[in-house]
Amino acid sequence: MNKRYEVIIRNGLLVCPEGVIKADVAVCDEKIVEIAEEIAGEARETIDAAGQHVFPGITDGHVHFNDPGRTEWETIATGSQALAAGGGVLYFDMPLNCSPCTLDAKTFNAKLAVAQRDSLVDYGFWGGFTPNNLDKLAELAECGVIGFKAFSCFSGIDEFGRADDYTALVGMETLAKLGLPLMVHCENAEITSALTAKALMHNKTTVRDYFAARPPITEIENVARMISLAEETGCKLIIAHISTARAVALVTEARRRGVDVCCETIGHYLILTADDVEQLGTVAKCSPPIRDPKNQAKMWARLLNGEIAFVSSDHSPCDPKLKDGEFLKVWGGISACQTTLPALLTHAGHARKVALEDIARLTAQNVNEIFNIPGKGKIAVGYDGDFALVDLAKSFALQAEDLFYKHQVSPYVGATFQGTVTQTILRGTTVFKHGRIVSKPIGKHVRPKF
Ligand SMILES: NC(=O)N[C@H]1NC(=O)NC1=O
Ligand SMILES: [Zn+2]
Ligand SMILES: [Zn+2]
């Protein structure tokens, strides 16, 4: 008798860790149960993926969905839909810019309740790491946070205090014992705040003035400092949204001598340049700022050399009114969680001939391995039935109305991408298909395995 499955995806090109294979894949009870050239048997739902690539659904390690409390900027409902439209099945939400910030069990549970109600796709949470909540790190670990997030410089949110060196040192000692990683936004606070104050005093508020107020050395210096503290304490360290090739080099050197450190970068540091930001305006303002093309070429070289562990979106939207004004003064943050996979398919796969399995590693597999998330991030038997179906032959020019964000703004509006996500499948259920959200929220909380 023929076997019966819940879902079979037939005839697709599966992007597996070992390479791309033409095969069928079957899902039962939310998990991949079989991968074979031709799966005999029937399914409740058969998906014909002929001509399409089947990627593992992507995991975005770094988003700010701002829910609860700043839902006029973004929400878990809209953010998770946008992620799904870009092939995403899982995200790790930052402990700011929601309000209250995620700084203890109570604020964690408030966010969890929203996600349980509204999240289309799966989710994990970052805990906050500030001078005021060092006594809550263990309680957040109990809640199941995937790691902790700290800022070396002003975070943009008054309630989320920056981690001074003392806080970083003693907090890292605690995290080393808890066995959870610390991600740090690395920009030297003293230099960025002094240069910013000086620029403001002289009314220098253009895009170039903003770049000058946050030069590469602020990142490089702070990455070196955080590596020293991690080396001393044994805390696992992840550098957030690394933007300079010199800082990546520091991470690589430290890892080679045995420090438990790695780095994340963001699509926009690989795709946009300082000149683009000048053209685009405040929609492309972020911190650290987007750098020059020479640095970007070196970033690509290091990415392709395996020195950057994963690529996230740092989706950090705001009310568009907050982008209206002088460059130096407006909100820093870019909306991007819907475009990470198409952007990498275009700029890595298409333009630089990066292997598709390497793109899958950078967007799905590595981040789940780093955070010890079981059963997520690759197409393999026993893993969740999470897929992004992609038509690599189909290009599209991003229109504002394609965006599922709360506010339909992005620096990529008008940009052309090579590779269209046609369908996103979360644990066997199609959540996005041909431009539409086709499921109610079914996201589940994921937590690291110890
Ligand atoms: N608070 C916040 O989201 N900040 C983010 N925005 C940005 O551009 N960089 C960040 O760290
Ligand atoms: Zn940051
Ligand atoms: Zn961020």
UniProtKB/TrEMBL annotation:
The modification N6-carboxylysine is found at K149. GO terms for cellular component: cytoplasm. It catalyses: (S)-allantoin + H2O = allantoate + H(+). This is Allantoinase. CDD domains: L-HYD_ALN. Zn(2+) 2 binds at K149, H185, H241. Carboxylation allows a single lysine to coordinate two zinc ions. Homotetramer. Binds 2 Zn(2+) ions per subunit. SUPFAM superfamilies: Composite domain of metallo-dependent hydrolases, Metallo-dependent hydrolases. Zn(2+) 1 binds at H62, H64, K149, D314. Its EC number is 3.5.2.5. It is an enzyme of class 3 (hydrolase). Residues 54-431 form the Amidohydrolase-related domain.
